[in-house]
Amino acid sequence: MTTIYLKSHKEESLKRFHPWVFSGAIARVVLDAAHKSEAPEEGELVAVRSAANEILGVGHWQVGSIAVRILAFGVEMLPAGFWRERIRAAYQMREAIGLIQKENNTFRLIHGEGDFLPGLIVDVYAETAVIQAHSVGMHVCRNEIAEAILAEVPQVQNIYYKSDDTLPFKAPVEGERVGWLKEPSDPYREADRSTAGRLEVPSTGEEFWSIENGLQFRIDWLRGQKTGFFIDQRENRALVERYAKDKDVLNMFCYTGGFSLYALRGGAKTVDSVDVSQKAIELVNVNVAKNFPSATNHTAVAADAFEYLTAQKAQGRTYDLIILDPPAFAKHRDAVKNALRGYQRINAKAIEMIRPGGILFTFSCSQAVDKEAFRLAVFSAAAQVGRKVRILHQLHQPQDHPINIYHPEGEYLKGLVLYVE
User: Pick from 67, 117, 236, 279: CA 20 to 30 A from residue 27's CA?
Assistant: First the structure.
């Protein structure tokens, strides 16, 4: 196996079980004798040793600032049955915390570093698991991962692979980035392949539904964002339900309408769902009709968030409860400053439109923005508007999106629930 030797004293983070080896920590690379190229191949398993030749671990090689993602520490080969053991441990944890039940068949099975499998995401929707690889190494191992899931997760019968938007764009990847790894026999039909190389929903309009806390959601893993649904807001949606009774609710950046459905079930007087995507709005309406077929107190609008809030303010519209769950304003560190300005601007507009005694749920899913910076942006927004604001809750990702204690970077979802006088 190719061996990566670190510079002196660069092994300390690995001895503390942090799973990343940065390119700047590498002293030299000794290729396997049978290696055909002059450098490790992206996605290749490599052993990592200290400058003193101490075995530190084994992981996937990749091009970039993070050169190796460690899969197992203290060994230089993956042990037999590695994938099944890690999938089994992840599933047992979800079982142990009571997450998997009849009223909730939607959950994250693997959350990258949080489940000691950096570069891998697996979400389960009823009997279908959707795999996303965020590293070439996980792409190379996708079939072994699929076999392990089928062997260790009782309810999963089908495996869909969706890594077209998550793998490094220029990486030399063999095999399809998207498609079935274990096809369902029925009731789904094989999807048509578009000229762009993506799989599209068949024109016959097959529908797939999953259940989250008793609510049904139409899942489109073929064309939807992420793996088709934002599972990470499950507990925060349930909290909205607790606060929604008799309130006029605005759900900005609504996507599939998760917060909207919980608000409706919580007894909201009215719910307005807003998203810039017309397809998302259509999906919201489908979800509302499925769960509340006779509801007349829900409105869905396709509009830009800033333009919508500006127009509603001009008309004197106000709300009792507003949810702000925007997409990541900062994908990387260089964008943090602009992202914080964006968070301040959108929160100021929302705080202006909350009635006295109202509540704001506000979130950031930008990993590059830490919780202190996000809180400062929100507080700056409150000060700009001149409202008295108190924190009721500080929110984060749910228990099936665990944070590896040795990898604090895994804490990406930040949220505040604010009471506005």
Answer: 117
